[in-house]
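Dear colleagues,

For the upcoming journal club I promised to circulate an example of a predicted protein-ligand complex. I picked one with cobalt (II) ion because it came up in last month's discussion. The inputs are reproduced below in full, followed by the predicted structure.
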Amino acid sequence: MSRNPLPGAEHDPLIASMVAGLPARQQPQWPDPSLLPQVRERLAGEPPLVSYDSVKTLGALLARASEGEFCLLQAGDCVELPTECEPRDIARKVEMLDVLGDIMCTSSGLPVLRVGRIAGQFSKPRSQDWETVYEDRLPVFRGPVVNAPDPQRTARTPDPSRILAGMKAARRAVTAIDRLGRGEGAPPQDRVWTSHEALLLDYELPQVRRHGEGGSYLASAHWPWIGERTRQADNAHVRLMAELDNPVACKIGPEATVDEVLAVCGVLDPHRTPGRLTLIARFGAGQVARVAPLVRAVKQAGHPVLWMCDPMHGNTVKTPDGLKTRKLDAIMSEIRQCIDVVSENSERCAGLHLEASPDDISECDGAGRSPVPGPGYRSLCDPRLSLVQAVAAAAHWRLPVGAAA
Ligand code: PEP
Ligand code: CO
């Protein structure tokens, strides 16, 4: 008996096998890959986390956002934990999206689509494969679907059974969003949409499903994105997204060249479809002016992309204690500059992408908080804004001068 409740939601093995043959960065070395086929098969037999109808609805809303009808807020943890996907956790995260979305709505006069880094933001790209802890050389933490953060060899050993546990946690999160009345049955503009970096191919490929219109979509999230480290146009991550009918996003950093960005646009948005592709600029407050030639080139090539501002990932610095942090001032400055630079180049910045938590944390620096090692610093990857800091950042959202509200 098929376990899929939705017609046409069977796994698409053709896309999976095509992508599996391409170079892919940032994948773990599983010490016991013999477990993977079983994990893949179980995952491929699971019901989809999101329906194709929802994915299409979001695509249509993003197309309207590209016409200036909506703003976008995408926010949540840098790395989500399966232990924090319970109804209480999800209710607080949704509440945070609402608080921040309402602020953006007030300052822009536009309704705000609310998207969580939620229900699957479980794997992380890392700049090193290894780190030394107390003279022990350990694999780095790559997110809870790969290994555990504790600095011990057993915890850090990649374990494929974590992939299934992650998918189950994502389902708890999706169910919790539904039960809050913000999921499948809710009016489109009231929904909380799910998104994450589609990084771990062993998690994503089994979740590629056929849909009733003859194509395929990624059933792990409404809106997957590609990270700055895996956006090579001929590699697995971009080619996978190219085959999918979800709206997709791609992070773009200060090293990106015009040619690279145009190549990504060509692969991901060949038909120049409004809402299909969002480019998330994450340059840093000191470098955001470098987005200008990219905005011009993409526009000239005729891609109706949405631009978003991620003021987090280009502004990461280290404290003297070696803690990763971000200064709220730099985050606010990047937001203001990004809105201006994009509009000076005849496009509109459509929204904000933030790493933020409803918890009372001290990971970023500003609004009365500074990062100190201890219980207030809990992020297992990048430093998040506390709710108060995120409110201060969201207050810098506005439409560019001269834009019609
Ligand atoms: C992230 O969003 O957590 C991330 C790793 O971003 P980027 O790919 O922009 O570095
Ligand atoms: Co991050």
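Two points we might discuss: Residues 13-394 form a domain with the TIM Barrel fold (CATH 3.20.20.70). The pocket of phosphoenolpyruvate (ligand 1) is lined by residues 78, 125, 197, 227-229, 251, 282, 313, 382 (CB under 6 Å).

See you all on Thursday,
B. R.
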